């Protein structure tokens, strides 16, 4: 479960790859496919216009498909997944993620629907941290705290995109350069996120970043899932499993206290599949602080660095979502702050707990908590984080 790999070789490789915008790679793969059999190579990725930023910059939508019929729409604004279809037990594909049909709806007060989060997933206490004796003050956008990268985090940036069709799926490489000092963070950060839709109904996400000054990084993906395929339902009937024997209790501002608390015998025990609604209203101080579940679970070590983290199962439709990661934590958020104020894609509104998030990440507030695994990234190192979301049915 290591995120930061100090490999100069890899850094050089990454920098070269970054500069070329993956074009060489892409050309190579394409020509390889072309020589194999031009006729049989299906186009698995389509680009269309999605809208315009207030300054006129175009935002594109890429539709990734695979041979089974899964479709994922990703827009260049925030790298947001706006639509994602998954089969039920009868093979019917339906949209299972919260979002909007038009760009303007994403400009309002939207709780990070489907977005890439950076530079830092979740909260940094008092919007402040120190590195090598220097104190950095970050944008505060959550009471006194910094949340999900600040006022204009990576979720609100327009990313560059490089699409690629594969034999049975598609790849979209998104890149963004965050300037030194953006939202208060030190160092110019070059970020690359690779979305790969496989022929196995799996979205593999690889995050990479390099910096020119010591900084902190903690990237994640903020999709809200509703496996029922009907956004007027809540997610309380979803059965969730979390591969975690402990979680991080929080203070009233949802900052981890530093304690790793065993889940056993508490509403936080998801080591066996459990309906989200079973104990979400329990008389428990931590539940009350989160308004439900809004905590980081400490993932158990798995045999491989990249292992099972979580699953969600919707009994009625038979949809199963599994999450694998090499991160040490997962934020399980049950959409407690949704309140029906946002219109849904299908005509209704997004009500309380109409979506659940499984955000793989390092622990919140790590830059201020020495006992937590470090989120520090130095020049010459490559930040690397790997997560996959896999759909099936049972
Ligand atoms: C946080 C919540 C927050 C939500 C939307 C989650 O990752 O844990 O506290 O309300 O994101 O911003």
From TrEMBL:
Single GO term (MF): isomerase activity
SUPFAM superfamilies: Galactose mutarotase-like
Domain of life of the native organism: Bacteria
Chain intervals for the UniProt region annotation (Disordered): 362-394
N-terminal signal peptide: 1-21
InterPro entries noted in UniProt: Aldose_1-epimerase, Aldose_1/G6P_1-epimerase, Gal_mutarotase_sf_dom, Galactose_mutarotase-like, GH-type_carb-bd
Organism: Flagellimonas marina
Pfam family, one: Aldose_epim
Cofactor(s) listed: Ca(2+)
Record keywords: Calcium, Carbohydrate metabolism, Isomerase, Signal
Protein name, UniProt field: Aldose 1-epimerase
UniProt keyword Heme, yes or no: no
Record EC number: 5.1.3.3
Sequence similarity: Belongs to the aldose epimerase family.
Pathway: Carbohydrate metabolism; hexose metabolism
Enzyme class: isomerase
Assembly and binders: Monomer.
Residue ranges with Polar residues bias: 366-394
Catalysed transformations (reactions): alpha-D-glucose = beta-D-glucose
